[in-house]
From TrEMBL, chains A, B:
The keyword Flavoprotein does not apply. Residues 9-63 form the HTH lacI-type domain. Keywords: DNA-binding, Transcription, Transcription regulation. This is Transcriptional regulator, LacI family. The lineage of its organism: Bacteria, Pseudomonadati, Pseudomonadota, Alphaproteobacteria, Rhodospirillales. Coiled coil: none annotated. It comes from the Bacteria.
DNA sequence: CGGCGCTATGTTACCGATAACATAACAGCC
DNA sequence: GGCTGTTATGTTATCGGTAACATAGCGCCG
């Protein structure tokens, strides 16, 4: 932290000060054991005195390893992916990589732009929360030879790899839980458009189990605008208007479920006696000291960590045993069902 | 999307195919109006045919503009900063920049590491959620000549710029709200360690108003481990044990407030009749169709957007009118007070 | 008609690192 | 004592772009 005449200190300046060549400085940073201890210390001292920070972009250009992983996330708001991004960033950091983030707001056009922008950084890997892409996006990614990990679902034919769980099975599991609790006239509340994809899969699994049970009916609704809680409230209102005898609702997210809870309360209904309400995600507010909401817990942070590790492994030459990693989910029964 | 013999297409290859020199391709990308339309189209065609994606790292190395902005965030989980990061990323994207993200988990040692790692990318700007830093971190940043924006608080002496609001004033405003609602024996529930800093400021403002009112008492407690909701629940329990006549609690976050609500309910207390509960943040679950929680709304997305714009402006040579931007806050009175 | 100012394009020299190969010094071995 | 292998360090070329300075062609003006 010293001389720096305005700009950045370069490796050459460090080398000069330490009385060695650039490459020796490079070795001290990347493979210290190839340098004699005495030299190493001299170089380290020069680095400290000058406050040298190596330029990773230059290094990456030469070594063809950017040490950057890109994450293309629909949105961080709404609790869903935040913990996954935390997990991802954490694991990457531990391995000397950095995380580049882009949001798509559930638009595949924006996903295409984000992917193109990220490819410009020649990332060592790419993580996508969406599992449906524009054709050209998919082709570009396949041609890029960069490890791509799709998360939060297990696509039949992943671009590269996939880490997540089966949304369909999760919906089915919740159906079984509600059946076991004696419910028979059940509705699903989702959101239209956008996040649709995964929600749709949850619904499919849910509906299938109910139909096959032969004893229960399924109803479904989705609200398209407003906050998630507002949609949940309107969703429950719509369900009860059309099917007043509904005795359970499964919401595609905990936030929707909270909206439904507030609507139920507003109507003077008792949960779970009059109606059972279940959510999805096990967000913090759903927990024991929060709403006490029955929900499906998904391994958010683990998904991020496993996705990161997968990328690191592939780049280290270790071909993983499977292209798809199923981290499962868990139905958490609490007070609302 | 075509020939690509395994690696990446370079600008030179595009140039050759279009029958021009590299620099002309570069101009088509960066300043298209300096190139004759006919040439421009030929180059664009070549770019499309070859599926060329310019290497931003190489470009940045040469132009000394990385088009990267770094954000050092304590954590994404917990709703607090997610919307800010969304806003930040959005504004950056619109201006051709990308967002590099690092988490610190509220540790200033990890902040120091993250800052060092980011500086290695020569970012065009840096955004920090923390406003307390290790001395060396601060010095490094000051020496770097990179625009630094501290957010979610208005430090007296910012490193570079600051965008946020006064946590102290926010605490004070909530105190006035509760006083006006007739409450007199109030407690503050915060979290120890970590996030402490901003929570402490909220408490200071809260306590000051109450003391100066001459009619109200203040109590404070903080829980140090467990989930936020669990801390809120334990916080309320601790408060009521020690000061059973407490008639209002102000929690340092909505999540804590939810924990307190659940504890109140568990004890058979009616909110707000027996006890008023207020939170901070106006997370989605606190809203009208959620908990209906009285809280303080802060402009999360705006903070991100304004911080991004500030960095873009400074890099464009526009010195902003002030180093500090106060975006304010708003007390939202709902059903719990 | 020579010179000026445009417009359109090209040439050269980097930016700051690393890979790959080269070299020097020295120890160990037959 | 010469050969080989190992350790420690250096030299050169290159990664893929962009800045800065050329250059060429052309219209226009006095």
């Amino acid at each position: 932290m010293a001389i720096e005449t305005g700009g950045w200190v370069t490796m050459g300046e460090v080398a000069e000060r330490a009385g060695v060549s650039k490459i020796t400085v490079s070795r001290v940073l990347r493979s210290p054991d190839k340098v004699k201890q005495e030299t190493r210390e001299r170089v380290r001292a020069a680095i400290a005195e000058l406050g040298y920070v190596p330029d990773e972009a230059a290094g990456g250009l030469s070594s063809r390893r950017s040490r950057i992983v890109g994450a293309v996330i629909s949105t961080l708001a709404g609790s869903t992916f935040a913990s996954t991004v935390d997990g991802l960033g954490d694991r990457l950091r531990q391995n000397g990589h950095q995380l580049l983030l882009a949001g798509t707001d559930y638009s595949s056009a924006r996903e295409a732009d984000a992917v193109a922008a990220m490819l410009g950084r020649r990332p060592d890997g790419l993580v996508l929360t969406s599992t449906t892409h524009r054709d050209d996006t998919r082709r570009t990614l396949e041609a890029s030879r960069i490890p791509v990990v799709e998360i939060w679902e297990l696509p039949v034919d992943p671009i590269g790899y996939a880490v997540g769980f089966s949304n369909r099975d999760a919906g089915a599991a919740m159906a079984r839980h509600l059946l076991a609790a004696g419910r028979r006239r059940m509705a699903f509340i989702g959101t239209a458009g956008e996040d649709d994809r995964r929600g749709r899969l949850r619904y499919d699994g849910f509906a299938e189990v109910l139909e096959q049970s032969g004893v229960a009916e399924v109803r479904a609704t989705a609200a398209a605008s407003g906050t998630q809680t507002a949609r949940g409230a309107r969703g429950l209102a719509a369900v009860l208007e059309r099917w007043p005898d509904t005795d359970a609702v499964f919401c595609s997210s905990d936030t929707l479920a909270l909206g439904a809870l507030s609507e139920a309360r507003r109507r003077g209904l008792t949960v779970p006696e009059d109606i059972a309400i279940a959510g999805f995600g096990d967000f913090e507010f759903a927990g024991e000291f929060g709403l006490g909401l029955t929900t499906v817990r998904v391994p958010g942070p683990d998904i991020g960590e496993v996705a990161a590790q997968l990328i690191l492994d592939v780049n280290a030459g270790l071909e993983p045993p499977s292209r798809t990693v199923d981290l499962g989910f868990q139905v958490i029964a609490r007070a609302t069902t």
